[in-house]
């Protein structure tokens, strides 16, 4: 064995691993830096934050346009609709699905007239059972426009995490008031309940592991559709991405 | 917290506990130095092609999504400062993290080195009767060789990330932080799958979508059967104030492992801390754009301890040192630990682009690996392969430009070179290699103006001494010549500048006194302005 | 202005034309050039290879030489991005390593008056059209240290575009390192060779007659490769920015300094 390979890290007898690691780190940090120690207050926050003018001042309609564009960029199918037409848009997004699992807390109107077997998740469906379901329909906690991100909290509206993972099609209903412009505002909203399980979804499951060629659809849902419920002056009932729908 | 305060916490009553380097069993060191390993990689045409294509693709993607961020540099400033804050206050933040995770129903374990982490994970796995465990791609578990440790205990590990799966099925080693199979092209991956996947369609094409589909089918049953089992992950960030762990991924395999099993074990380096939940606003912007060149990666999971009725009902966090404390010991080098594993520095590095990751011999390749690996393992011997890593760079600086947390990799590379040289200089009898002798000689000559002036002027036209023994008299270029001329030609410089200048001075002085004086050998042109006076501010005096 | 020339050790010995051109150029612009024969080297090779202790007396010698001129000259010019970068960024580092606070301070004073050629022309002498004439196609390699340490930015290109008769064409992957890296080119010669091979191919692909840069070391690397791999004397040639800017209708650039063949 080569000489450089001989020395094993020493452990101090009578010390727990925690005590020893902390002591090692303290010894190491005793060698001072040339520049000053950085305190939390020193962190420069000049980047665009949640309370920035751009975040709060941008017209909500424009923010939604950005969201739609960014969602579509990564091949999410978006259905822009209004409250009265929401059920129809959801039905269209779920078209062809024979069975749909939903979390307990979604509004009843969303599934009115849905031509599919509806399974309300009671927490007992196994992964194998979920695998037999065609689609999952959930709400959303926050949608981040600039990154095209849907933020789901493990709650009654978005469901426990397994139900949005195993079925192959995920339809997310986003309300206008859930849409924010940037990541900082999204994190701020998540931070109101940091202990919850959170899932941030930006486009369908994908991989770039083969020659860095992006391929949609690996282990998560291969099809992601968003129903965006907007206030007056809707953009129209038609899905905004025609050719990609299917 | 002040520096003095921190020093007070060192217990002076006991022998000081020294920071320790990584376990020798860690995957942090190759079997030979970088130049030799690189030479082999450079000779592999297929590898070169795969790397060139892949790194060019991802670099372009990164550049385009970074360009659309007007506050990118400000985000980098914030990311860098946050990381410095974490480094400066690591002991307190670690204790805070432990308290937060415990309060949220998780169990925290501390692992001094690779062996201890392996023991903890193995014990937890065996106690739960798991024979198979699923893994999410994790640098820390790769670093400590966890798969091998578990296999030794009879536990089968299944890598769930596509690229890790490719590497695992091929019996290969990862070569990139983000895309471990970057060295394989689609045709090679098809072959690997045909060999290793029992139920694969033998007619499968090498279309990436078809290959990804095969991986989906191969892993699907394993994911779905996991409900009573154990999964192992790393984490991108661990939030001290809330105890939240963040795992950033693309495929959904991470979500499977973090959501479906009964027990989750996360092995996380002690440097992965983010002070507060809100600080994720910085890192969740910096990481995806730097890493995959996306505005946001498809999936990010944030979980805090155990959530009743949702996901694993048992959560263990293993906090890993394994050489990290040794990195912290060097104030000039410790920011290597700020790395968020985006791999932008690999993709932009002209050395990595040509040699690939295996030449670095470590889990951490590329520019960041060249500063991280030798600091984690320590370099106690000039023959240590990791001693060559700080030299595996032309110091072009492209890595520093793209680093989302502004790690000054080129400066740390030079610092580590100096450290290694100093170490040899101080060790008796070691400071007499070719380079040492050449540098000492050149240094002496270059700090003696008279001797230097005489040497350069007497060397005359370089062609007279090239090639040949007299080359030792050419101070500036002395050690460069042989390796140089294997690959390139050299200019024929003729008379040195200082000889020309001296002749011109003499000539113009003579012209002033005696118009029509003879030309000097190389016909220096008379200056057109201010001619006639001695322009040499200070004459060193001729030897 | 009175300008002190620090041609750099490499230019002094290996590519003296570059220094001569710098003198011609600055004098043509009406400035006075001085050269102090006590100068040797900036110490970059030692520093970047980790030999700080051996670099220290070199740095000290550099500081001694140029400090003594500070009162008498308006600026110090180096026709090299990496050497100017070394003076600015690394001299303080070497001084600190030696624990010599006084040297650090003196080095900073010298560095404050030290400029790379394009910086001197554009920022100090406030000139972009230097009255040069160069009727050739050129492509510009920015060189890493000019670009990333000194951040000279578009200055060299602005100077080039003002040259009469010149055609500047795009260099593919121009901001990728040529593979020189000082002792890197020897310690990791195979990797360095792979890098310069690609750089030379890109120069050829640009269709230019000349590849121009502000660093003689990078040029020696690229030019040496072009000569070796691409048809010798008919290959594109490496030329320093100073050589183009010194060239005029009356005294056009004459390629000199033929290339040595393979040194066995």
Automatic annotation (TrEMBL), chain A:
InterPro entries: FTHF_cligase-like_sf, LUD_dom, NagB/RpiA_transferase-like. Residues 36-60 are annotated as: Disordered. The lineage of its organism: Bacteria, Bacillati, Actinomycetota, Actinomycetes, Micrococcales. Pfam families: LUD_dom. It comes from Brachybacterium epidermidis. Gene3D superfamilies: NagB/RpiA/CoA transferase-like. This is LUD domain-containing protein. Residues 48-60 have a biased composition (Basic and acidic residues). Residues 128-229 form the LUD domain.
UniProtKB/TrEMBL annotation, chain C:
Residues 6-85, 138-222 form the Cysteine-rich domain. It holds the Pfam family CCG. InterPro entries: Cys_rich_dom. This is (Fe-S)-binding protein. It comes from Brachybacterium epidermidis.
């Amino acid at each position: 064995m080569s000489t450089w390979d001989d020395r094993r890290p020493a452990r101090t007898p009578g010390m727990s691993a925690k005590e020893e690691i902390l002591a090692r780190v303290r010894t190491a940090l005793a060698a001072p830096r040339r520049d000053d120690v950085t305190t939390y207050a020193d962190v420069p926050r000049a980047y665009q934050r949640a309370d920035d003018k751009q975040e709060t001042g941008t017209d909500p309609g424009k923010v939604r346009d950005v969201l739609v564009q960014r969602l579509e960029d990564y091949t999410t199918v978006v259905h822009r609709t209004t409250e009265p037409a929401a059920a129809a848009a959801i039905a269209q997004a779920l078209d062809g699905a024979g069975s749909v699992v939903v979390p307990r807390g979604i509004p009843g109107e969303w599934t009115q007239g849905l031509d599919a077997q509806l399974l309300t998740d009671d927490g007992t469906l196994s992964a194998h059972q979920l695998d037999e379901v065609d689609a999952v329909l959930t709400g959303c906690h926050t949608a981040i426009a600039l990154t095209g991100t849907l933020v789901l909290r493990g709650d009654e509206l978005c469901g426990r995490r397994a139900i949005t993972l195993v079925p192959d099609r995920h339809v997310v209903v986003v309300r206008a008031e859930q849409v924010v412009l940037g990541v900082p505002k999204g994190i701020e909203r998540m931070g109101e309940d940091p202990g919850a399980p959170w899932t941030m979804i930006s486009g369908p499951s994908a991989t770039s592991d083969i020659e860095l060629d992006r391929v949609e659809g690996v282990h998560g849902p291969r099809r992601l559709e968003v129903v965006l419920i907007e206030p007056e002056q809707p953009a129209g009932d038609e899905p905004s991405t025609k050719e990609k729908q299917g | 917290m002040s520096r003095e305060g921190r020093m007070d916490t060192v217990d002076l009553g006991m022998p000081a506990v020294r920071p320790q380097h990584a376990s020798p069993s860690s995957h942090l060191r190759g079997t030979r130095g970088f130049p030799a390993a690189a030479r082999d990689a450079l000779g592999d045409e297929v590898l070169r092609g795969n790397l060139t294509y892949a790194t060019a693709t991802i670099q372009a993607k990164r550049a385009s999504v970074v360009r659309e961020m007007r506050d990118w540099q400000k985000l980098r400033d914030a990311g860098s400062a946050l990381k410095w804050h974490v480094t400066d206050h690591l002991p307190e933040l670690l204790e805070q993290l432990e308290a937060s995770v415990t309060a949220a129903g998780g169990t925290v374990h501390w692992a001094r080195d690779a062996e201890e982490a392996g023991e903890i994970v193995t014990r937890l796995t065996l106690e739960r009767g798991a024979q198979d465990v699923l893994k999410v791609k994790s640098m820390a578990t790769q670093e400590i060789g966890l798969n091998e440790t578990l296999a030794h205990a009879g536990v089968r590990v299944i890598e769930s990330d596509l690229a890790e799966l490719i590497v695992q099925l091929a019996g290969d080693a990862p070569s990139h932080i983000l895309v471990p199979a970057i060295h394989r092209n689609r045709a090679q991956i098809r072959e690997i799958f045909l060999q290793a996947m029992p139920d694969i369609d033998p007619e499968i094409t090498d279309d990436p979508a078809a290959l990804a589909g095969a991986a989906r089918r191969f892993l699907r049953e394993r994911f779905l059967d996991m409900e009573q089992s154990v999964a192992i992950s790393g984490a991108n960030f661990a939030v001290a104030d809330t105890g939240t762990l963040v795992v950033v991924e693309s495929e959904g395999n991470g979500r499977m492992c973090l959501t479906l099993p009964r027990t989750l074990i996360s092995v996380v380096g002690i440097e992965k801390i983010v002070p507060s939940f809100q600080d994720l606003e910085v890192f969740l912007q910096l990481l995806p754009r730097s890493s995959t060149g996306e505005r946001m990666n498809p999936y990010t999971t944030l979980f805090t301890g155990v959530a009743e009725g949702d996901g694993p009902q048992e959560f263990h966090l293993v906090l890993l040192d394994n050489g990290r404390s040794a990195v912290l010991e060097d104030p000039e080098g410790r920011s290597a630990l700020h790395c968020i594993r985006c791999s932008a520095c690999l993709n932009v590095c002209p050395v990595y682009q040509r040699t690939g990751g295996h030449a670095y011999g470590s889990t951490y390749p590329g520019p960041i690996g060249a500063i991280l690996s030798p600091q984690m393992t320590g370099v106690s011997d000039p023959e240590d392969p990791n001693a060559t890593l700080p030299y595996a760079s032309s110091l072009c600086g492209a890595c520093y430009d793209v680093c989302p947390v502004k790690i000054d990799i080129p400066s740390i590379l030079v610092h580590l070179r100096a450290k290694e040289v100093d170490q040899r200089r101080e060790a008796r009898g070691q400071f007499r290699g070719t380079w040492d002798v050449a540098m000492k000689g050149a240094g002496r000559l270059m700090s003696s103006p008279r001797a230097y002036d005489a040497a350069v002027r007497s060397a005359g036209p370089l062609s007279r001494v090239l090639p040949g023994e007299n080359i030792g008299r050419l101070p500036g270029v002395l050690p460069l010549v042989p390796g140089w001329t294997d690959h390139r030609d050299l200019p024929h410089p003729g008379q040195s500048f200082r000889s020309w200048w001296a002749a011109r001075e003499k000539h113009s002085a003579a012209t002033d006194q005696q118009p029509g004086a003879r030309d000097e050998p190389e016909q220096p042109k008379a200056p057109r302005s201010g001619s006639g006076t001695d322009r040499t501010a200070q004459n060193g005096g001729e030897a | 202005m009175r300008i002190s020339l620090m041609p750099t050790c490499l230019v002094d010995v290996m590519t003296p034309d570059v220094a001569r051109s710098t003198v011609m150029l600055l004098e043509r612009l009406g400035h006075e050039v001085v050269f102090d024969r006590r100068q040797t080297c900036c110490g970059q090779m030692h520093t970047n290879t980790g030999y700080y202790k051996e670099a220290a007396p070199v740095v000290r010698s550099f500081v001694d030489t140029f400090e003594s001129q500070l009162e008498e000259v308006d600026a110090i010019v180096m026709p090299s991005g990496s050497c100017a970068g070394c003076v600015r960024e690394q001299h303080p580092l070497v001084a600190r390593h030696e624990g010599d606070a006084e040297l650090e301070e003196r080095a900073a004073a010298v560095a404050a008056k030290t400029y790379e050629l394009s910086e001197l022309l554009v920022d100090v002498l406030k000139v972009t059209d230097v009255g040069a004439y160069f009727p050739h196609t050129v492509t510009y390699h920015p060189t890493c240290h000019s670009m990333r340490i000194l951040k000279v930015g578009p200055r060299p290109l602005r100077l080039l575009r003002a040259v009469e008769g010149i055609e500047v064409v795009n260099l593919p992957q121009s901001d990728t390192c040529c593979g020189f890296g000082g002792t890197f080119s020897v310690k990791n010669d195979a990797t360095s060779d792979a890098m310069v091979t690609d750089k030379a191919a890109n120069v050829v692909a640009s269709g230019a007659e000349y590849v121009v840069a502000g660093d003689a070391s990078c040029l020696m690397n690229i030019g040496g490769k072009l000569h070796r791999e691409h048809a010798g004397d008919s290959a594109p040639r490496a030329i320093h920015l100073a050589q183009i800017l010194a060239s005029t209708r009356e005294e056009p650039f004459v390629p000199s300094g033929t290339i040595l063949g393979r040194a066995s």
